[in-house]
Write a structure and sequence with these properties.
The chain is of the alpha+beta class. It has 14 helices and eight strands. The protein folds into two domains: about 325 residues, Outer membrane efflux proteins (OEP) (Up-down Bundle); about 120 residues. It is about 65% helix and about 15% strand. Strands 2-3-4-5-7-8 form a six-stranded antiparallel sheet. Strands 1-6 form a two-stranded parallel ribbon. Helix 12 packs antiparallel against helix 13. The longest helix has about 70 residues.
């Protein structure tokens, strides 16, 4: 993922979880607090806003990029330079073995000095160090012609691996992998946003269905209750039998059970929507009903299967994650292959030296590079077994094979999901038309049957059956409409374009 994409994701996080949806969340919280009509009216956009601000899964995933950013900084810290300062002082006294020569029975000496320097790793795998030494020594020995003596030295040390540990790619592997892992965490956040917003929409439309289905069941119950009362009057007038009354009474009981089940479905759907949006701030708010204000209008969506598959493979964050994971495997293999090589280091040093009886003398000599010492050499290390590095390479190769298989499986899964959602979008409109027609026919049949019943040409059983048929047809029509809306949500999720379709755009 390039810098521009990472920048966009940073904006995404700050915008979605901050000011962008503050006003919507405030209105919802205010509605909860007031409870003016003992319910809260919510649009689907308000539910999306709440989820973006408060959903716990999104908040968890938001932490991931921050963790990976810290790990990336840690990986980069490997190449941070370091400074060194080492002051020292020394004093020694010991009996002299040659007092006649040295002129003293006790030989004494002392010295003070310091070493200061910097060291810095190199991205090619080597390192360099630059140090400066300054020292003053004094002795009572007559052999020390410079007394006190001042020494100074400037030393440059360089070490560079030529086989194992050599190269930009090998030495920056941990940084590259850490950057890739940060990109993966950003993609994981995007995937979580898509999943959550898709679930919010799915839960919203499911609540709409549950509420409308409750109305259908209540209408069916009312029809059975009306028939029960009518049959009681007919029985008193001698136009109906006790069996007719019992059939209607049984239908009332059965449809009361349907209403109870439908009410439970409404509460379940409300709880699901409250959970996914995390709108609950107080335990009592779980019992406040939600009234959706949006209706499932028909929005025809035209899709081409081949284009949809291409779009999904380009936009699905999970697929991008898998490809980055495969790239990490390639990096690990390169590092493991490099570790199989012998260790051959080029070593070199250059020192500029100075010595004098006055403090400025050695400094002047160092500055003029009057005296120098240099060294160059090689250090070779050959592993006698190499089992650990061989096993590491084998592990990396197997991990790549595993990542490649996972990528292919995910690709097949994405294609299957896209094919399924496209197929569903093609069949759902046909279901809508069929269920609308079925409901209209069921309504006409029921009206005709009611007229026949009034004329004594039909039975309670037949009338109740046609009432049930109409309720089923109405429920099926609602289900078809909701399924179509949910299929659109599933399509955008399968294509990885949910955020774009919800007009979550960032400059």
């Amino acid at each position: 993922m390039d810098n521009s994409v990472r920048y966009i994701f940073c904006l995404l996080i700050s915008s979605l979880l901050g000011i962008m949806f503050f006003s919507a969340n405030e209105s919802v919280v205010s509605a909860f607090a007031e409870e003016a009509e003992n319910q809260i009216n919510l649009s689907i956009q308000e539910c999306i806003s709440l989820a973006l601000k408060s959903n716990l899964n999104i908040r968890i995933k938001q932490i991931g990029p921050q963790i990976q950013d810290a790990l990336l900084t840690m990986a980069k810290g490997r190449f941070d330079p370091s400074a060194m300062f080492s002051p020292s002082a020394n004093s020694a006294e010991e009996p002299s073995s040659t007092p006649g020569i040295t002129g003293a029975d006790v030989r004494s000496s002392n010295s003070q000095g310091f070493t200061i320097g910097v060291a810095d790793p190199i991205v090619t795998g080597g390192s360099y160090g630059l140090s400066f030494l300054n020292n003053r020594s004094k002795s009572n020995s007559s052999f020390q012609t410079l007394n006190p003596a001042y020494r100074s030295g400037l030393t440059l040390d360089v070490t560079q691996p030529l086989l194992e540990g050599f190269g930009f790619a090998v030495n920056k592997a941990s940084i590259t992998i850490a950057q890739n892992n940060k990109d993966i965490s950003l993609l994981s956040l995007k995937a979580q946003l898509i999943r959550t917003l898709s679930e919010v929409q799915d839960a919203y439309w499911e609540l709409v269905f549950a509420i409308e289905n409750l109305k259908v069941q209540q209408i069916a119950l009312g029809q059975a209750q009306d028939l029960f009362k009518k049959n009681q009057r007919f029985k008193e007038a001698g136009k109906a039998t006790a069996s007719d009354v019992l059939q209607a009474q049984a239908a009332v009981a059965s449809r009361e059970a349907d209403v109870i089940a439908a009410k439970d479905a409404v509460r379940d759907a409300e709880d699901r929507l409250k959970r996914v949006t995390n709108m609950i701030q107080d335990e009592a708010q779980w019992d406040i009903p939600i009234a959706p204000v949006d209706t499932p209008s028909f929005e025809e969506v035209k899709v081409v299967l081949e284009e949809s598959i291409v779009t999904a493979l380009e936009n699905r964050p999970e697929y991008a994650e898998a490809k980055i994971d495969l790239a990490n495997s390639d990096i690990s293999i390169k590092v493991a292959q490099n570790q199989r090589l012998p260790r051959l280091d080029l070593e070199g040093s250059l020192s500029l030296n100075g010595l004098g009886g006055e403090m400025d003398e050695p400094l002047s000599q160092v500055g003029k590079a009057k005296y120098d010492t240099w060294y160059i050499g090689f250090a070779l290390r050959l592993p006698l077994s190499g089992r650990a590095t061989k096993a590491e390479l084998q592990k990396s190769q197997l991990e790549k094979e595993e990542a490649l298989i996972a990528l292919k499986d995910l690709e097949a899964q994405i294609i299957t999901e896209v094919r399924g959602t496209v197929r569903q979008l093609e069949t759902d409109p046909k279901r809508i038309e069929a269920t609308k027609a079925a409901e209209e026919f069921a309504r006409q049949v029921l009206l005709a049957e009611e007229r026949k019943y009034e004329l004594g040409l039909s039975t309670s059983y037949e009338l109740l059956q046609f009432q049930a048929n109409l309720a089923t047809a109405a429920k099926n029509r609602l289900r078809a409409f909701i399924d179509y809306r949910q299929s659109i949500v599933a399509l955008y999720q399968a294509l990885g374009v949910t955020l774009e379709r919800l007009n979550i755009e960032l400059e």
